[in-house]
Each structure stands twice: as C-alpha cells, then as structure tokens.
Amino acid sequence: MTQIVGRVPRGHVVRAEGKTKIIWVRIRKRKKRGLAQNKPFVTAGDGKHREFVPGKEIAVTETTCNIFRLLNRSGIPTHYHKKINADTYLISLLDMIPIEIVVRRKAFGSYLKRNSHEAEGTTFAQPLVEFFYKNDTMSDPMMIWQPEHQCFRLYHPHEPPEERGAIGDLKAGLDPLIPRNEAEIERLEVIAIEAFLVLEEAFKHVGITLVDFKIECGYDQDRRLYIGDQIDGDSCRLWMGGDKSKAVDKDRYRNIVKQGRVPTPEERALIIGDYQRIATMASSFGLMGL
Ligand code: 5GP
C-alpha cells in the first residue's frame, strides 16, 4: 500500500511503510542508516480512520527531531542523527521490538478502562510503565510478565485483566526481540522512564503536563538498545496547565472519530494548530539549555 505523498529521496527505496511514516534506505551502500519521512495524515483506530492534514508532516518532524535531540543530549540513546529537510530525518536502522511501551504520570486513556476503580487524572508518584504487544489482529494486547513461566501473558487492552482472563501467551524464545527475562524487561523500563522524566521536565518549562507517552525501542547489530520510531503529538498526551480540556494532542481527533464524525473545517484547523503548537514548544527545548 505504498502511498508516497512527499518527495522521494534520490537513490532510496522503501524499507517499511506505516500509517504516518515511510522508512527509506539507499539502493546501494551500507544499510545501517535510513531516512524517516512523515506523511500528512492523522489516523485513529489502527488506521480505520484517516484524514489528510497538509502541514502535519512538517510539524511532527520538527517536534520529533527536537525531542530526539534533547534525549540524545541527555545521554538517552535514540536512533536519531539529523534533520534532512522539512519532513525527513536521518536515523540508524534498528531491529524494532514489537512492543508499545507506555509510561503514565496520570490515570487516563486505556488505563482507566482496565482500572475502573481509579479516579481519572490521579497522579502517580512514580511513572507507571506498561507493555502492549504490537499485533493488529489482537488489538495490541497488554503484556503481563509471568515470572514462574518466564514469558508474557496477553490481556485485552480495554478490560480489567481479571474480567476476561488471558487471551494468549507469548511463548518464551518465539521472538528473540521480545524480552526473555527480568533483566531485559528492566532495561526497557529504565530507558522509557528516563526518557519520560526528561520530556516531562522539558514540557513543564513551557507550561505543559506530559500525561503519558508511547515509545518503541530497537536493537542495532551489536544488540545495543535505542529508542526508535517517533515521539510527537500522536504518541504523547499533553495538557496545557495540566487541564484536560486544554489538551493539544491527538485526543482531539480521537474524540471526533469516537462520535462517528469527520472533523469540520474549524476542527481541522484546531488539529493542525495543535501539531504546530507542539512543534513550536519543542523547538524551544534547545534554547532553554535543556
Ligand atoms: P492509551 O493506552 O491510554 O490509549 O495511550 C497511552 C499513550 O500511548 C497515549 O499518549 C497515546 O497517545 C499513546 N499511544 C497508544 N497507542 C498508540 C499508537 O498506536 N500510536 C501512537 N502514536 N501512540 C499511541
């Protein structure tokens, strides 16, 4: 379903294509690095809903480049090298771990569906980490480690685990990229929490509460761990002044879709405005000496 909207980088072919991004590699030459190019689409519900939002690709590229620069400067390894042009940046190619790692400071989103006793917006003293297995047919189930079996058990992401029980098992050793023991799990948790704390502090400087985020990690050829994928307004919940009604993230689009609608022209303007606002804030991270 290749759907190239931006410029095709000269001498490159598609290595992978997602709903909002294309990864390119050189036709010849070493294949340790590639280009990540953003697309001008906002999507929801595993790509079932999609809007063409011109300019989004530029805003999220600016955001993610500044976020990755900040993490690199803070000693947290990421796949980012440098921005190439308005919608494209240079990355190290990684073997991606098929896990969405979510870190939460507040109880919100799918957490509330699994923990209905918890009040919305409760602040966790320590950031909470959760793992979701990237698997569209199973709707990205939650992964819970079973120490006695040394493997993960899978649970529906929107129901309390005890309600339906396990919906599957990730057999140990089936995928070498999935953590195989507590030490490998801890490495992922540590890198995710460190990144969250750096970004939480940076967004605090511009008056924004980082409610939660999702990252993805991968290994290079020497099995060194890096943060990969992208961190932007699609993968973070960001509330101005800690106020849910002043969210500047993708929840605006998700909420419209939940009502069974497509955005009005006014709402489209607000959606692109949010992405641009986050990009402007992220561009100030370098100036703040962070
Ligand atoms: P939740 O599990 O509450 O739906 O989402 C937690 C956090 O992870 C939110 O910041 C949300 O934006 C992010 N997130 C969850 N699933 C995805 C996904 O499929 N793609 C992206 N980009 N972010 C996600």
From TrEMBL:
GO-annotated molecular function: ATP binding; phosphoribosylaminoimidazolesuccinocarboxamide synthase activity
Keywords: ATP-binding, Ligase, Nucleotide-binding, Purine biosynthesis
EC primary class: ligase
E.C. number(s) listed in UniProt: 6.3.2.6
Superkingdom to which the source organism belongs: Bacteria
Protein name per Swiss-Prot or TrEMBL: phosphoribosylaminoimidazolesuccinocarboxamide synthase
Listed Gene3D superfamilies: ATP-grasp fold, B domain, Phosphorylase Kinase, domain 1
Key word Nucleotide-binding present: yes
Signal peptide from the UniProt entry: none
Listed Pfam families: SAICAR_synt (PF01259)
Domain named SAICAR synthetase/ADE2 N-terminal: residues: 16-259
SUPFAM superfamilies given in the database record: SAICAR synthase-like (SSF56104)
InterPro entries listed in its UniProt record: SAICAR_synt/ADE2_N, SAICAR_synthetase
Catalytic activity reported: 5-amino-1-(5-phospho-D-ribosyl)imidazole-4-carboxylate + L-aspartate + ATP = (2S)-2-[5-amino-1-(5-phospho-beta-D-ribosyl)imidazole-4-carboxamido]succinate + ADP + phosphate + 2 H(+)
GO biological process: 'de novo' IMP biosynthetic process
Pathway participation: Purine metabolism; IMP biosynthesis via de novo pathway; 5-amino-1-(5-phospho-D-ribosyl)imidazole-4-carboxamide from 5-amino-1-(5-phospho-D-ribosyl)imidazole-4-carboxylate: step 1/2
Organism: Candidatus Azambacteria bacterium RBG_16_47_10
